[in-house]
Backbone:
């Protein structure tokens, strides 16, 4: 991947991660300090529970991370890229869950950890499946869609 494209994808990934922090830790609130001073709610759920809406939202929220990682790691050996992505996404999800627990921002949930990781890996697999069909045009399409999506999410963040 050319340096310019790689920088753009890295920037999109960083912005998307900031948006995820806002969505997950600050519950999409523009008043982040207000969220930090809510009454403490600290809980860990070790038993997987299925809530269709929450599961789907977690899955979809982490899918773009897999797409971005696919673009960034596509030149690496496939097994190595897959392992790096699984580790990154799993550790990121774990970081969110631990942070929620430490800051008492909600329930730390094993189901979230599982669905976040599966969503990210689905995004990664989707990228390579599309790339197999479209070739080099895949990056341009995903960079364009990623840019539009990130701008829309950022606008929602500012407007809300």
Residues:
């Amino acid at each position: 991947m050319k340096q310019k494209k790689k920088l753009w994808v890295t920037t999109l990934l960083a912005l998307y991660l900031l948006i995820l922090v806002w969505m997950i830790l600050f519950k999409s609130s523009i008043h982040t300090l207000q969220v930090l001073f809510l009454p403490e709610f600290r809980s860990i759920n070790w038993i997987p529970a299925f809530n269709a809406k929450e599961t789907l939202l977690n899955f979809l929220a982490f899918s773009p991370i897999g797409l971005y990682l696919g673009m960034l790691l596509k030149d690496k050996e496939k097994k190595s890229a897959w392992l790096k992505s699984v580790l990154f996404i799993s550790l990121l999800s774990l970081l969110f869950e631990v942070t929620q627990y430490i800051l008492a921002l909600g329930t730390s949930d094993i189901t979230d950890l599982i669905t976040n990781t599966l969503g990210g890996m689905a995004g990664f697999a989707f990228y390579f499946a599309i790339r197999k069909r479209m070739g080099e045009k895949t990056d341009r399409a995903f960079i364009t869609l990623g840019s539009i999506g990130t701008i829309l999410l950022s606008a929602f963040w500012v407007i809300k």
In short: Helices lie at 3-24, 32-36, 52-73, 78-102, 110-134, 137-159. The chain has a mean pLDDT of 84. Residues 3-159 form one domain. The chain has one domain: 3-159.
